[in-house]
Amino acid sequence: MSSSHFTSPLYLLSLTLLLQIAIGTNPLFHFCSSSGNFAANGPYEANLNTLMSYLYLTAPLTGFASGSVGQSYNQANGLALCRGDVNTTDCRSCLAEAGSEIRTLCPYNEAAIIWYDECELKYSNLDFFGKIDNENKFYMWNLKNVSDPIYFNENTKELLRKLAEEAYGSPKMYASGELKIGEDEKLYGLVQCTRDLSSIDCKKCIDEAISELPSCCDGKEGGRVMGGSCNARYEIYPFVNA
């Protein structure tokens, strides 16, 4: 989605403060376009409604869908992405909630994006497909600090870079894994891209997300960079489905 159609500040959010939200049905975060609104019951809204139905029905089958409905200024473009480990039923449930919530939060905005723990939904009146979204981004982190941040940060980078290599060449553009960092400790990670990106741009997007982790999550037990085109996450506990 064209980055100029969203507010650009990076929102720094505490994982601890959002813990209750993250494990419930509420969104992690959202952006509403500030560029313009559409008329109620007009052609753009009709196209957007059709698009939302299409994404809801199609995305759960493979975990991703994108599409456009309408023409010219009334064209609605959108995508839906579910986390790579989420099953069809949970994907559909997440997207149903996302579709309802984003229309409540951004009722007449021409473009919007919303993230949940298990899915992302994004739409715009502009064609954003195949372009890295560098503007719609936020951070989440655990307030607890690790005992040896230098060692921990090095292992975090090692794990996520390994996952990035796996993800950008895979059909789902998703990878998760773990790394042993002590006798009884493991580090868990996940990276994922929206599948409208090329493999090269997926890798570029994930690498950028990984490079931003120190600015938000240096020495923290967990952290995420959540963007419109990709995300990267690490924790000291398992958080994906087996």
UniProtKB/TrEMBL annotation:
UniProt main location, coarse: secreted
InterPro entries reported in the protein's UniProt record: CRR_secretory_protein, GNK2, GNK2_sf
Cellular location(s): Secreted
Record key words, sorted: Repeat, Secreted, Signal
Signal peptide: 1-24
CDD domains xref list: Gnk2-like
Keyword field contains Translocase: no
A GO CC term attached to the entry: extracellular region
Alphabetical list of Pfam families matching this protein: Stress-antifung
Domain Gnk2-homologous: 26-128, 134-239
Keyword Secreted assigned: yes
Family recorded in the similarity comment: Belongs to the cysteine-rich repeat secretory protein family.
Name the UniProt record assigns to this protein: Gnk2-homologous domain-containing protein
